[in-house]
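User: Hand in any protein.

Assistant:
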Amino acid sequence: MDVKDFYFDLPQELIAQDPLEDRSASRLLVLDKSTGRMEHRGFRDVTEYLKKGDCLVINDTKVIPARLYGQRQDTGAKIEVLLLKRKEKDVWETLVKPGKKARPGTVISFGGGLLAGEVIDVVEEGNRLIRFSYEGIFEEILDRLGQMPLPPYITHELKDKNRYQTVYAKHEGSAAAPTAGLHFTEELLRRIQDMGVTIAHVTLHVGLGTFRPVKVDNVLDHHMHSEFYQIEEEEAAKINRARENGGRIICVGTTSCRTLESAAAEDGSLKAGSGWTDIFIYPGYRFKILDGLITNFHLPESTLVMLVSALAGREHVLQAYEEAIRQRYRFFSFGDAMLILDLDGAGTDAAGKTGDGEEIGRNKTE
């Protein structure tokens, strides 16, 4: 399976640079995953596609202000550090630019000495392990010095940090937002619950994979970085109960989808727990629990386009993207949304559904 099979030509002006004033005012392209039929709606119309007994699964991870700008203590050279994964209390795996200026032993000063970090090791793909030292509480210092780690395709300054958080963000640890959830307001979530739709919370801390393009020609050669997930007993019970009662499991975002598919048994039952997952979902993967997905429009040739293609079929997804471009939808993190499900309301059967019928996707957890 060639990475080029997931390419589409996106005009630069369709990349959303700023969030809408009203989170729920974005557009919604509804795609029937079985037939490829499309409908153009507003995001608030998502309620018309949900029904009593369904379960909406949201990722309640919270983005930390993970981008730090500092200087080498010895030379004063400027260095940018992106926090990716906490390894120990004060040791983080980081992405450092420029990496050549951050060899082991290098000490970096942030905020005029309010925070200091020493590079202690170089690990996979050139990432640096940094041990931080400070007085006080690390999270408070980070909130003061750090900036939101916006993706490189967003060049405008974000005036309000909270606009890169979902309204239900709770557990700190992500290096990027689960952006499909940015469309929801508290009022819209209340309306959905009032309909009799269960809302279940899971946590997956979005990590390095968000920032890594697919660099191989063959999809099967790509390696996904592992990310930490957690599902509480009460939330797993909500999802299992909805499924047992004939409700559909609809995930908000690819991160929620990857969390459930990592933790679900082959029969579709979900077990509470936590761990690290490097699940890679691409066409041919058999979904064990997912019936529908709310997601944003993703980058060409990305693992996220491959995931939605696994759910709805590559041809259907690329046709939907072409239509979205024709209709001038806004793309990526602050852009518009898609809802992918069977429009006749039928859930996935017990054996699961495949996308294009190609080779089965990898499903590995640690």
